[in-house]
Amino acid sequence: MTSRKTTFLLLAVIFSLLFIFVANITSGNLGVTLDEAFANWADQQTNTLINQLMNFASIIGSSEVILLVTVLIGLYFLIKRYWHHFFFFFVLSVGGVILNLTLKLLVKRARPDDEVSFIEVFDYTFELQSYSFPSGHTMRATILFLFIIYLAIHGLKQTMVKTIAITASIVLLLLVALSRIMLDAHYATDIIGAIVISLAWFFLCLSFFYTSKARSHQ
Predict the structure, then answer these.
(1) Any idea where the domains of the chain sit in the sequence?
(2) Taking a C-beta distance cutoff of 8 angstroms, is the pair 124, 145 a contact?
(3) What is the pTM (predicted TM-score) of this model?
(4) Element (H, E) at 132
């Protein structure tokens, strides 16, 4: 178990370093070139069907949907008294939100076209500007779907069900991430940064909370 925790911690460090690299290139030539290439590609792909799919994916990554799913999962763990999963998920989710807000305020990157956006939850607007880097939609979705993938690998026995759960999580995650670029809400580097820092945060939490299958339901 110790070796696995060490591996998870090492992965957290690697993804953290990748995040620092992405954060550093956002204002440089490499980042600008990457963002422009994705933006130009996105402009060429727009049609009614794609727009509808991207809007749907954006809703999946919204604060309201992620919060609702998070509460339902948390309640399930409480009812089942799966304390280990509950505290892991609580720290992962709440900590992920705090981490995202902190990074946004530290970097303070303007959104595409200098659009000013504020944090909104269930039509309530908080007087706190939501900056572009890293993408909140993408971070929320990544953290949630990483946890679902973890549960599938850790708890599901049937190979087919496990494969479906993992595949669906990856597809939905990629759609949410892609929607932020296609809808011109974020730069590509905002998305990449959100994914790698979410992976870093997930593996950091996993290095602390990881335990055997038998003990994880206690």
Answers:
(1) 2-216
(2) no
(3) 0.86
(4) none
